[in-house]
Amino acid sequence: MKLNQIDDTRKKRAVIIFLAAILFISVKGFLSPVVGVGFVLQKEVVGVEGEERTIIFQSGPEGVSVQDAACGQLLPEGSENLQINESVEAELKTMYPEIEYIVRMRLCIEDEVREYRASREDFNTLEVGRVAKFRVYRSERDVIEKIVEM
Fold it and tell me: Is 119:144 a contact under the CB 8 Å cutoff?
């Protein structure tokens, strides 16, 4: 092999490694979570059947209310922070194929209201009227990945 061929091969390798590193950093940045801070305004439990969405329970500053009368007996009396345990979720899933947990927050930095989907566990942790620090993925900014701090 000639010296020029070796230099060309090294240059090609260097360019390939550089492009691979840029691609890796871009993908990692796209998938890495973003931390947000927001004031919890409202929580909702929503039943989903096909394209139809039905609000079952709603919790706001005025308290917890039952929106779907058929599910009224499932909610414990005197509950200030709307929480859904496994048995209530199982009962709701007999009425609706899918249950979504929705939280509306006023973001502290951006001063705008956003709606997020959350897991049942994170939904139960969040309290209306409190500030929460949470993570969302860059690729799915409307889904809470984890509650960092309450």
Answer: yes
pLDDT in tens, 22-51: 666 655 555 567 888 999 999 999 999 999
**Whole-number Å distance between alpha carbons of 150 and 145:** 15
Smallest CA-to-CA distance from 80 within 100, 62, 99 is with: 62
Query: Beta strand pairing status for 98-107 and 63-66?
Result: unpaired
> How many angstroms separate the CA atoms of 30 and 148, rounded?
20
Tell me the one-letter amino acid at 129.
Answer: G
Q: Of 31, 24, 29, 25, nearest to 145 (Cα)? A: 31
pLDDT value for 79: 67
